[in-house]
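Give me structure tokens for this 224-residue protein.
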Amino acid sequence: MSSDFESYEQDFAVLTAEITGRIGKVPKLVGDEKKQMVANVEKQLEEARELLEQMELEVREIPPQSRGMYSSRMRSYKQEMGKLEADFKRSRIAYSDEVRNELLGDDGNSSENQLIKLREERAHLLDNTERLERSSRRLEAGYQIAVETEQIGQEMLENLSHDREKIQRARERLRETDANLGKSSRILTGMLRRIIQNRVLIVVLAVIIIFTTMMAIYFSFRER
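Here you go.
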């Protein structure tokens, strides 16, 4: 599973490097060439987002004890993605301003103040968008941590349930052993009682035989 993640990771690194290079070229291009570059960057950004989604799915399949390292790497990749999108938005603002100037022609010189104001408003909106994206990433990271914590808790509960079953089975074996020991003790006690009874009987018989023999000897001497 981690090998798939690392493969996506390499593709993401190559793709983001290409995107960074192309974003840097956007302000230097003009006309159709610039439009084509903007379209290419948009397409690559979409591919990068899809790669991030695949990587996130792979991370969810990794066992919790090994997931922390990959989750940390995912957070850094999402931050990198957010920075790329912010840089691309800035380049698009510059690009749209240039297109507007081309459309306005000479009138664009008379509307310079309006363009400056528009640029400031767009920059302000971009800052607000970036703040929202950062907040969204923090919420997503918090949600991810909550999901991982829930999964770890479920696994701990399952482990505790298995341990409880093992303890119950061990107790049942102890009860069976105690019962068997009780039966063995009763059997041994009965055998010991019978042995003692047999020995007492033997002693009584021996005493009777000795007494009978002595009496026989006594009467035989007496008759003489």
